[in-house]
Amino acid sequence: MKPRIILTMLVTALLSLTMLNSCTTKRGAIRQLQDLSYDLRDNSSYYTIKDWQDAAKEFGEIREKMTRYRYTPAERRQIGELEGQCARYMVQGIKNGAINGILGVGNEIRGILDGLGIKY
Q1: Where residue 101 falls among pLDDT bands split at 50, 70, 90?
Q2: How many CB atoms lie within 10 A of CB 105?
Q3: % of the chain residues with pLDDT over 90
Q4: Helix, strand, or coil (residue 103)
Q5: Whole-number Å distance between alpha carbons of 27 and 96
Q6: Among 44, 56, 97, 118, who pairs with 113 as Cys (CB 3.0-4.6 Å)?
């Protein structure tokens, strides 16, 4: 084979792998948000202060990771629904007093909710 053909094949293979990995990572961030939503739904009533801190940190990290990717309108809708579910459980935690008075976490969660435009 000619070197030019080999080079073209290598570049094509590299681009294909990059696109595949990008899609997997992009969907991975959505799956992480979905997992967090399920965890909040199933376990937040039993959360300790440390658990709330970890959940708030994880939510922020997932949202930050998602800013690196372009999502389709359908994916954006799914993300919005999952963020809304997470926010709902966080609001319930605030209303139940589970996280009121926790330094940093209460304000961080309130900031996240404000950023999402959710009133509590």
Answers
A1: low
A2: 22
A3: 36
A4: coil
A5: 33
A6: 118
